Amino acid sequence: MKNLFKLSDLETQEINNIIDEAIEFKQGKEFTELQGKKVVNLFFESSTRTHYSFIKAEQNLGMVETNFNAQASSVKKGEGLYDTIKTFEALEFDALVIRHPQNNYFEQLKTINIPMLNGGDGTGNHPTQSLLDLMTIKEEFKSFKGLKVTIVGDIRHSRVAHTNIEVMKRLGIEVFISGPEEFNDGSSTYIPFEQAVKEMDVIMLLRVQYERHGYQMTLTKDQYLENYGMTMKRVNEMKPTSIIMHPAPFNRKTEIDDDVVECSKSRIFPQMTNGVYVRMAVLKRAFEV
């Protein structure tokens, strides 16, 4: 049994092994040993890409998936996370995928004895998103060492940024951050956005997470797009080999203009495709001794 809560718990070799396995799955590798395994997807926050790519990954592996509805559960009666998770263990499910708004929610689940995969915790960790980002970068550049990546936008509230910054640095990537100063949490070296556009191998945009702020962003959407958004003018200033990424969902006309979403440098939808194969790889890993 192998849980996956934080990529910082994994050595770089194991991270590369997961990515390589995901690439093999994408290339058609078959794996039948998880057929019939019963997995529950417990999403206490809204999700499209993570939730449904886990479902697709489970289906591809022949697993039997159950999707937990927090709004129609005993959570509405005040049941806590531990008791909810313990219930599914008692019901003899084989594995759990969990997204929860509390940072490090998994600290309270150490006595659970079935594999658990973190689908995102608060503003802290999003390991499978980072893995699919890394898979997309590896497909593009074949290696990580020496690449330059700038993560742009709402760093402060982004579990994607916090996970990627830590793991990318360990893999030999130079990681910078950019965007409005109010979102700069000092987690990496700040670089002006216009400089990043011209110099980086990867521009990774982040969604402005209005639901996490608790306050009104000082910039209007138009001002954000003008100062920190990816427009075709900026696309044309990028290096010929550089790419644009975004974990999605994206705010069109805020961090990215309409005509950039599917432009030749964008890897946004290929990232989503890769999410299925990464999640197949981590589900396989979960049952390894």
How does this model look, in words?
The model has no long low-confidence stretch (mean pLDDT about 95). Strands 7-6-5-8-9 form a 5-stranded parallel β-sheet, sandwiched between helices. Strands 2-1-3-4 form a 4-stranded parallel β-sheet, sandwiched between helices. The longest helix is centred in the last third of the chain and has 19 residues, at about 270-285. It folds into 2 domains: about 5-125 and about 275-285, Rossmann fold (3-Layer(aba) Sandwich), CATH 3.40.50.1370; about 125-265, Rossmann fold (3-Layer(aba) Sandwich), CATH 3.40.50. Helix 1 crosses helix 4 and helix 4 crosses helix 5. About 35% of the residues lie in helices and about 15% in strands. The chain has helices at about 10-25, 50-60, 80-90, 125-140, 160-170, 195-200, 210-215, 220-230, 230-235, 270-285; strands at about 40-45, 65-70, 95-100, 115-120, 150, 175-180, 190, 200-205, 245. The chain is of the alpha/beta class. Helix 2 (about 50-60) links the parallel strand 1 (about 40-45) and strand 2.
